[in-house]
Amino acid sequence: MQPESGAVTLPAGDRGGAPCRKVTAIVRGTVLEDVERRLRELGVPGISVTKVKGYGEYANFFTSDWIVEHARIEIFLPAERADSVARAIVQTAATGEPGDGIVVVLPVESMYRIRTGEVVRACPGEPHAPSADGTAAELTTEVDHGTVPR
To answer: In whole angstroms, what separates CA 71 from the centre of its chain?
Structure first.
């Protein structure tokens, strides 16, 4: 199959830069502002917050579907910062009651900037990934106008 005209081919995997992690936390909405404040204090470079519904360890038995509303926080960080950020979220969000939520740390294999199709080589919160000669490099764009429609 031939690539469509005006499309972008994304290169396979390998970000090239330092290892990156995605920290995802599902917390009570009542502690969200406290967690956001703590993350700013830690210098976390950016977060995404989404309102979510579901049930797990805690289910709302007073509703017909058991659903509970929480907030999902997603953060991309250099691997060496992920554990300390995850622990800070746990400490800040804990009430000691069932339904406090969870924190998960996952490896990030690839990251692409949607606007340009570029491979993001530096994890948010770290200096730009080193180039082949060992000096700091700018974010590298690897775009071949070929497959992903714009």
So the answer is: 14
Q: Which residues make Cβ contacts (< 8 Å) with residue 103, sequence separation at least 6? A: 23, 24, 25, 86, 89, 90
For residue 104, give Cα distances in angstroms to 85, 87, 90, 101, 135.
11, 11, 11, 10, 33
Let me know if residue 1 belongs to a domain.
no
Model confidence pLDDT, tens digit, residues 48-75? 999 999 988 888 888 888 889 999 999 9
How many structural domains compose the chain? 1
Predicted confidence (pLDDT) per residue in 82-91, tens digit: 999 999 999 9
SS3 80: helix
> Which structural domain range is residue 102 located in?
7-149
Indicate the pTM of the whole model.
Answer: 0.73
